[in-house]
Amino acid sequence: MRKLLLLALVGLGAQLVDGSLGMAYGVTSTTLLLAIGTNPAAASATVHLAEIGTTLVSGASHWRFGNVDWKVVAKIGIPGAIGAFAGATFLSNLSTDTAAPLMSIILLVLGLYVLIRFTTFGLPKGRLGKPLRKRFLGPLGLVAGFVDSTGGGGWGPVGTPAILASGRLEPRKTIGSIDTSEFLVAIAASIGFIVGIGSEGVNYTWVLALLLGGIIAAPIAAWLVRHIPPRVLGSAVGGVIILTNTRTLLRSDWIDASNGVRYTFYAVIYAVWAAAIVYSVQQYRKNRAEDEQIIAESETAEPVH
Fold first, then answer.
1. Is 110 exposed, middle or buried (0-12, 13-18, 19+ CB in 10 A)?
2. Domain boundaries, the chain
3. pLDDT > 70 fraction of the chain, expressed in percent and rounded
4. 230, 175 in Cβ contact below 8 A?
5. So where does this one cross the membrane (predicted)?
6. What 3-state class would DSSP assign to 166?
7. Can you tell me the mean pLDDT for 290-303?
């Protein structure tokens, strides 16, 4: 009973972060399942089965608060589902130990860009509102979906920073669209796992516990995204990306840093991250009218093809 309560709380906390910042549900939940001895394929399968429900509720909540760009959902969600199915089907024969650090370096660079871009300059003024094309979203969805299945999480960490870095979609719609399209990814990954490993190792009581926690948190997270200033949201997302991928790199075989080194890095990142958010809040207050005008213009602009 204690384990089920812990899983429900993890599901609640993970979905609250995921729905607010566009990432972390899969990574957080999978990490816990691996820590209690679940094999990687079963852990990822359990999380993705729970995500079918959490992403459905999350997507509906984001739609309710106007956080979804349905064109982006379609363009990235379908390729993402294909990548997720492939990753799930072949997980037992694949190792991402080597690829994970390389992916973390790429994501770390994107995270730094997002943090600096939104903290220093605020909302992008030149490209915001311009359409995100299939030739960008298609490959991104394939890679993100594949990484998500093989690593137990990755749809948000790969998709969110890439779209934010493009400067074409405001943070709340980036997060809402990524969360909504993840429903397709979760279904495809779950089917892939059923094909690949069947139901062996999947504890459906654990799935239900994660699901219940996530369902409770999803509407709260969508409401937060709707009301947090875009500049502040961008800084917050950038910090999560940097912290997550720095942790992956420091713990990888490439570096294998000691506890002292890791904690020093974490302390510096937390300090810089907090300062960035404070600065973003201050700048938002000074330039609130301008930011609101940029968003309004991007929502009413005619699509550019």
1. buried
2. 2-300
3. 87
4. no
5. 72-91, 103-124, 181-198, 204-225, 232-250, 262-281
6. helix
7. 63
Look at the pTM and tell me if it is higher than 0.90: no
As to burial, measured by CB atoms within 10 angstroms (0-12 exposed, 13-18 middle, 19+ buried), residue 244 is: buried
**Tens of pLDDT, residues 9-49:** 878 877 887 887 777 687 768 767 766 767 777 777 888 89
d(CA 140, CA 173) in angstroms, rounded, equals: 17
Give whole-number Cα distances, 280 to 91, 153, 287, in Å: 41, 29, 10
| 259 burial type by CB count under 10 A (0-12 exposed, 13-18 middle, 19+ buried) | exposed
Euclidean distance between CA atoms 58 and 81, whole angstroms: 17
Cβ burial of 269 (10 Å; 0-12, 13-18, 19+) is middle
The total of other beta-carbon atoms located within 10 Å of residue 301's CB is: 12
